[in-house]
Structure formats: C-alpha cells, structure tokens
Amino acid sequence: MSKELIRLQNVCMAFDDELVLDHLNLYFNDKEFLTLLGPSGCGKTTTLRIIGGFATPTSGDVLFDGVRINDVPPYQRQINTVFQKYALFPRLDVFENVAFGLRMQKRPDPNNPKKMVKIPEKEIEQRVMEMLEVVSLKGFERRKPEALSGGQQQRVAIARALVNRPKVLLLDEPLAALDLKLRKDMQIELKRIQQQVGITFIYVTHDQEEALTMSDTVVVMDQGTIQQIGTPEDIYNEPKNAFVADFIGESNIIDGIMVKDKVVKMYGKEFPCLDGGFAENEPVDVVIRPEDIDIVPVEQGQLIGTVTSVTFKGMQYDIIVDFRGFKWLIQTTDHCPEGSRIGIKIDPDGFHIMKKSQYSGMFGDYSSFSEEYDELDDASLTLDEEESGDAE
C-alpha cells in the first residue's frame, strides 16, 4: 500500500475576494505520478504553488509527512519545481546549470556538526553526471542552453530540480512550449524519469492526452473544486458528470430517462445498457463516446440521422450527425457523404449513465462543428414524422 506524503485539508484560496480554491481536500502518495487537470482558471496552478510554498492558503492546512508546512518557505521544503519557462542560465553550460543548486548548498561538517561546509566538488560531479544520465543528456554537459532543443532544455531543468534529491517534483505545464511530436516524446520520457528516480511527480496541465498518458492518478478540477479523482481508465470510462465526460475526450451527452436498471430511454426509445442503481424514471445524462457508435444501414438503425459534416483525420473520419437538432460526433473508418441518411447502433456497454448535475445541458452537442444547422426545420418535425423517421 502506498504511503501518503502530502495532504491538503480544507484548503481555500482567495484573490481580491474571489474564491479560487474552495475547501480543497486532496492527498498525494509517495512515488505517485498525479496530474491536476482542468481548464484555465480552475485552480490547478494555484494548488501547485501552495504545495511548493510559493503561495500561502487563505485557510486550511498543507501537511507533509503529517507535519503542517503552511509557513515553511520553498527552499526548506523537500519539494522542487519545474516551471513552464525553464529559466536556465544562458551563460552556464549544461553541467553548471544542473550543479548550480548543489553549489549553493551547505551542510554540517561530518567531523564538526556545528560547522557548515559546501558539498565537495567530487560529489557534485558524481551527482550531476548521474542525473544527466537519467535524463539522457550524458555527453551534453559542456553545451550552452542556446545549443539545445526545447526538449533538451526541459530535461536540463528537470535534472537541475532532481539533483537536489527532493521527495516531490512539481511540474507546471512544462510541455506547453514544445511542438506536438516533441510533446508526445516527452510524455513518455517524463514517465520513464519518474519511475527511474522513484519520487512523487505532481503535474499540472489542461491537456487531457498528457494526463491520460503519464498519470497514475488524475484529479479533474473546475472552478476551484475537485470534480473527480481516479485512474486514467476510470476517469475516461466512468466520468462522474457532464463536465468530466466532456473534458476527458469527446462525448455525446444526451438527456435520458432511466426507466429501470439496465434500461435507458432517449428519443422516445428504450435502449439496453449496463448501468443500474438509479431511481425508476430518473432523469439522467447519457454519455456515448464517438468511437462506440456503429454506422449501419438505415433499416437496421436504432436511431436514424442526417450527416451534416465530414472531416478526414487520417486514421478516421469525424462525422457530425443530426438527430432532431442535436448534433452527435461519430468517429469511424467508414466514409459517409454529407447529406446522407444513416442508421446507428450502440451496444449496451457503449452507454454510460450519469446523474444530473450543475453541468447538465452544457456539453455534448456538436452543433458548432456542423456547417448545416437549421433549428426551425428540426423543430417543425411532427410526432408522426419523428416516430416514422429519426426515432426508428
């Protein structure tokens, strides 16, 4: 069982009377890769700054190994930070950038504990070279930052933070400035480094792919509160509300009625599903991932709709389909021309049922992606037309 390392207890943070964090309760385990994920302004970076000691919460406690550290300055915490801007010293080479923190340190003299001495040069060299090997930069020690790629500069910043042997490394959107391919490569590299050094990484991002790729645990935040905590698989497959379902991957989120256990009703039709535990005829949000929808001939469709937009994405097509004015996204390898009528089929495990929340009705409609959207025509459908057309 993992050991708890950091705990935030009822942490609140306000700026100019605006509540940025609202009674946050969260813990971080030793040797865990945990990601704080959410949109801009959700409070994730503020949370990171509080853990690092760069901000003091308005109320609540920050505990490290069970000890309250609210008033402990950053340099006295066993925590280091890698920021989005790496802040390398341009006039120093890679070796000296990594060694900088060690050269600033003093520790008790082994022969005279009352006397503080600098770390010996031999030890500095050994620790720096070990860390450069960890971040795959051995042989780059005499290069200046300007001669490095963005990914290499980031690894120097990570080595500089890790050479001090912290128990926790905080990373504030460190991949944001990199191009797409390099970001993907660095996701794998960061996870490898974390596993090799065996310490806790707390990572902040608004990029869902980064969170799902690297994390042991994902904390989804919005408006200063935690919406869901879980493994990447749990967050993706079992979102707690419409915000999480929409933020983590693409989702069609439709109003439904839970008729009974394992039966949900949408568009006047009942569909078998795998969910239960709801009240009879309880209004619910129904999540259907775009990749869980099969396109079938019209006569075989559980629902029938009209294709309004087709976008080629290389491995797949993103198709927007109009079902009585509500636009669904379908991801498929089958090409369907705009304007065509199609049937769709969804297996029972393709439905995920969620309780209604403050986010209900805010997400899941892909109207903005469609070039054709005529509310008047959709609204003019009679009940008979619906039952003989899209509701079939």
Précis, in short:
By secondary structure, the chain is an alpha+beta fold. It is built from ten helices and 22 strands. It folds into two domains: 4-236, 3-Layer(aba) Sandwich (Rossmann fold); 251-388, OB fold (Dihydrolipoamide Acetyltransferase, E2P) (Beta Barrel), CATH 2.40.50.
Describe the protein's architecture and organization.
With 392 residues, this protein is α+β, with helices and mostly antiparallel strands. The chain has 2 domains: 233 residues, P-loop containing nucleotide triphosphate hydrolases (Rossmann fold), CATH 3.40.50; 138 residues, OB fold (Dihydrolipoamide Acetyltransferase, E2P), CATH 2.40.50. It is 24% helix and 35% strand. The protein contains 10 helices and 22 strands. A 6-stranded mixed sheet has the order 6-9-10-3-11-12, sandwiched between helices. A hairpin with a 2-residue loop joins strand 19 and strand 20. Helix 3 packs across helix 4. The longest helix is centred in the middle third of the chain and has 18 residues.
Named at the architecture level, the CATH assignment of the largest domain is 3-Layer(aba) Sandwich
- Report low-confidence residues grouped into runs of 5 or more: 370-388
Class from secondary-structure proportions: alpha+beta
Q: What is the β-strand count?
A: 22
Major sheet strand order = 6-9-10-3-11-12
CATH topology of the largest domain: Rossmann fold
Shape: elongated
Number of spatially distinct domains? 2
Tally the helices.
Answer: 10
